[in-house]
Amino acid sequence: MEMRIAFIGGGTMGEAIIGCLLKKNIAMPANIIVSDVRQSRRELLSREYGVSA
C-alpha cells in the first residue's frame, strides 16, 4: 500500500519527522508534501529532502 503523508507546518519537528521517515525508508520523498507559511522554509525542505512543498 502506497502511503501519502502531508505536514501542516515545516518547522523543526516536521523536519525531524521527515528526515526519520526518509532515513528509515518508511516513505519516499515523492509521497511527502509540506505546507508552511514561510516560502523559504518550503524551499529548504524541498531542496534538502526532495519533498513537495
**DSSP, total strands:** 2
Number of helices: 2
Cα(first) to Cα(last) distance is: 23 Å
Query: Average pLDDT across residues?
Result: 96
Overall spatial form = globular
- Percent of sequence in beta strands: 15-25%
The major beta sheet can be summarized as: 2 strands, parallel
List SSEs in N-to-C order: EHEH
Q: Over all CA atoms, what is the radius of gyration? A: 10 Å
What secondary-structure arrangement, pairings included, does this model have?
Blueprint: E1 5-8, H1 12-23, E2 32-35, H2 39-49
Parallel strand pairs: 1-2
Describe the structure.
The protein has 53 residues and is an alpha+beta fold. It has one domain. The protein is 43% helix and 15% strand. It contains 2 helices and 2 strands; from the N terminus they run E-H-E-H. A two-stranded parallel sheet has the order 1-2. Strand 1 (5-8), helix 1 (12-23) and strand 2 (32-35) form a beta-alpha-beta unit. Residues 4-52 form the Pyrroline-5-carboxylate reductase catalytic N-terminal domain.
What key attributes describe this structure?
53 residues; alpha+beta; two-stranded parallel ribbon; 2 helices; P5C_Rdtase_cat_N; Pyrroline-5-carboxylate reductase catalytic N-terminal domain-containing protein; NAD(P)-bd_dom_sf
Q: What's a concise summary of this model?
A:
The protein is α+β, with helices and mostly antiparallel strands. It has helices at residues 12-23, 39-49; strands at residues 5-8, 32-35. The longest helix is centred in the N-terminal third of the chain and has 12 residues, at 12-23.
